[in-house]
Amino acid sequence: MDVTINAGPAFAMGTITVPPGGSVRVEAGAMAMTRGDISIETSTRGGFMSGLKRSLGGESFFVNDFHSGSGGQVGVAATLPGDMAEVTLDGSGALLVQSGSWIASDPSIQVDSKWGGGKSFFSGEGLILLRCTGAGELLLASYGAIQAFELAPGETLTLDTGHVVAFDDSVQFSVRKAGSWKSTLLGGEGLVTDFTGPGRVWLQTRSSNDLIEWIKKVNPQRNN
Fold it and tell me: Are 204 and 165 a contacting pair, CB within 8 Å?
């Protein structure tokens, strides 16, 4: 996948060059523009259950495959303002992606879901993490800028749960309180996730959960 990322880190847009006879898979609704010889095919990719599991992970039930006979471009953009990052999978492992961060990938990449159990539930990231496998390129989106870390074996990185974008499945993770219950409730710090290497971890510099809470505070909803 040949991707050029422009206008980051605040309002990134990814322009994917599709070669003659090539294709790219894009999250439904993420297409911002097409140029040249581009056609679109919408499907569940893997059948009803595959679409259902993706939708449980926060992605759309359907995905769009963009094909080109003689070559063209597809521009993609995320819902929230932020950055994008291109990630390579070599087929030896999986990448776990938070809800809403998968934007596009090579058709060779399988986008499925992984049950997160109580860990994901208590981290506020939902019950499902998307599980991306295969060999090829992915395009991830973040709210705010995106940063990547390479953890050595045994090395630990702690993130606020709302700032997690993606991580290799070789990385172990556990969720805990940032401090005591007093600091959690009164100090403004909630739950954090400890990641232990080896492997890669991506974070976003803003939290969509914090944005939602701020909107609720400045624009409280009244019950009828």
Answer: yes
HSE-up of residue 2 (Cα within 13 Å, Cβ side) = 9
**Residues near 51 by Cβ (< 8 Å), separated by ≥ 6?**
44, 45, 61, 62
**pLDDT tens per residue across span 52-70:** 454 444 445 578 999 999 9
Q: How far apart are CA 219 and CA 224, in angstroms?
A: 15
CA angle at 40 for the pair 38 and 43, rounded to the nearest 5°: 160
CA dist list (Å): 88 to 53, 58, 122, 135: 23, 22, 29, 8
Identity of the residue numbered 180: S
Residue pLDDT, tens place only, 171-216: 999 888 876 555 555 545 577 889 999 999 999 999 887 888 888 8
Distance CA(47)–CA(50), nearest Å, equals 6
Q: In what order do the strands lie in the sheet with 146-151?
A: 110-115, 128-133, 95-97, 164-168, 199-204, 146-151
Q: Which domain holds residue 26?
A: 2-218
CATH of the domain at 12: 3.60.160.10
CA end-to-end distance (rounded Å), the chain = 51
Which residues are CB-neighbours of 213 under 8 A, at least 6 positions away?
none
Q: How many domains does the chain have?
A: 1
Residue 107 resides in a domain: yes
Length of the chain: 224
61 DSSP 8-state letter? S
The DSSP letter of residue 188 is: S
